[in-house]
């Protein structure tokens, strides 16, 4: 009887990103530029790896996967942000929220697994260089990539199914600028105990598990580098993993900051800033990090950009 008095929620109202209505146009332009940078930068990385044979190695195969994940992660959030910045009432349909949840969480989970696989790749390259080609063969790399995408997708799919069994009524204000599990579960008028257990298990196995595996890999890498006699050898060995280490540091620092800080009214605004980091800023920086310090990527980029310029010129004619 009590359940029948509830009106089922068909859309959610988002709190928004900034409380500055007079600056919406400025924020729209900024986020649009960053989104274009994410899509273009990561797309160029993928094309460069595909067309340039010297980049057909396990490391760059996983970097191409990471670039695709970054595009999916940002595309799940930013287009809706841009739409809401131009509207007074910031809403998202129930179905749109579910789709956003699925794409975002599956891409974040996949990225966690990818970073772990990439740290293992760097471990084999530095600690077992003579066996690298044999250990990181093409078949294994494909199996690892498929497994990473499958685990990230299945984990998110199970969590989404558990959300769909919940009832949402009356309360429909999301205190964030996109849909995420904690904010959605807080609006449910039915028990979320099973959902919270699932999220806890995902945090343990996906977040903590991958973080510990990455730490272990880099412990072995550091020990191996310290054993190298020449300073040039140490520098060369460290340069092969420095880009990945920087990406890992950026990604995990934002995730850890989000979960270790106490919940308060002030932390809501901080959470939004951190969310911008891992959904927009980090995907923008990743292609820059992997391209600036790599000569082969720069060569591939020089091959792509003139080709694109000529193609655009012919179309204009």
Automatic annotation (TrEMBL):
A single MF term (Gene Ontology): G protein-coupled receptor activity
Superkingdom in the source lineage: Eukaryota
Keywords: Cell membrane, G-protein coupled receptor, Membrane, Olfaction, Receptor, Sensory transduction, Transducer, Transmembrane, Transmembrane helix
Transmembrane segments: 26-53, 59-82, 94-120, 140-164, 176-194, 200-226, 238-260, 272-292
Keyword Nucleus assigned: no
UniProt domain G-protein coupled receptors family 1 profile: residue ranges: 41-290
Family label: Belongs to the G-protein coupled receptor 1 family.
Designated name of the protein: Olfactory receptor
Organism encoding this protein: Gopherus evgoodei (Goodes thornscrub tortoise)
Gene giving rise to this polypeptide: LOC115638400
């Amino acid at each position: 009887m009590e359940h029948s008095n509830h009106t089922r929620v068909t859309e959610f109202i988002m709190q928004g990103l900034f409380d500055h209505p007079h600056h919406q146009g400025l924020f729209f332009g900024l986020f649009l530029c960053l989104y274009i940078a994410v899509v273009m930068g990561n797309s160029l990385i993928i094309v460069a790896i595909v067309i340039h044979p010297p980049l057909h190695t396990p490391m760059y195969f996983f970097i191409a996967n990471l670039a695709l994940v970054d595009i999916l992660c940002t595309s799940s959030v930013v287009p809706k942000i841009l739409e809401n910045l131009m509207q007074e009432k910031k809403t998202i349909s129930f179905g749109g929220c579910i789709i956003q949840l699925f794409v975002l969480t599956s891409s974040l989970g996949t990225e966690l697994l990818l970073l772990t696989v990439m740290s293992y790749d760097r471990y084999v390259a530095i600690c077992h260089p003579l066996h690298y080609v044999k250990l990181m063969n093409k078949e294994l790399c494909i199996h690892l990539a498929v497994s990473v995408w499958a685990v990230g997708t299945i984990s998110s799919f199970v969590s989404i199914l558990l959300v769909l069994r919940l009832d949402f009524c009356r309360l429909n204000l999301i205190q964030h600028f996109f849909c995420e599990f904690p904010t959605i579960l807080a609006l449910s008028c039915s028990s979320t105990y099973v959902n919270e257990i699932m999220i806890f298990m995902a945090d343990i196995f996906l977040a903590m598990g991958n973080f510990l595996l990455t730490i272990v890999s880099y412990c072995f890498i550091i020990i191996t580098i310290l054993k190298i006699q020449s300073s040039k050898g140490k520098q060369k060995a460290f340069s092969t993993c420095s880009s990945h280490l920087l990406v890992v540091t950026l990604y995990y620092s934002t995730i850890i900051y989000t979960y270790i800080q106490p919940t308060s009214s002030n932390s809501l605004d901080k959470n939004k800033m951190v969310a911008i980091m891992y959904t927009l800023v980090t995907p923008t920086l990743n292609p820059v990090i992997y391209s600036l310090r790599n000569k082969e990527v720069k060569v591939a980029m020089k091959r792509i950009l003139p080709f694109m310029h000529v193609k655009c010129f012919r179309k204009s004619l």
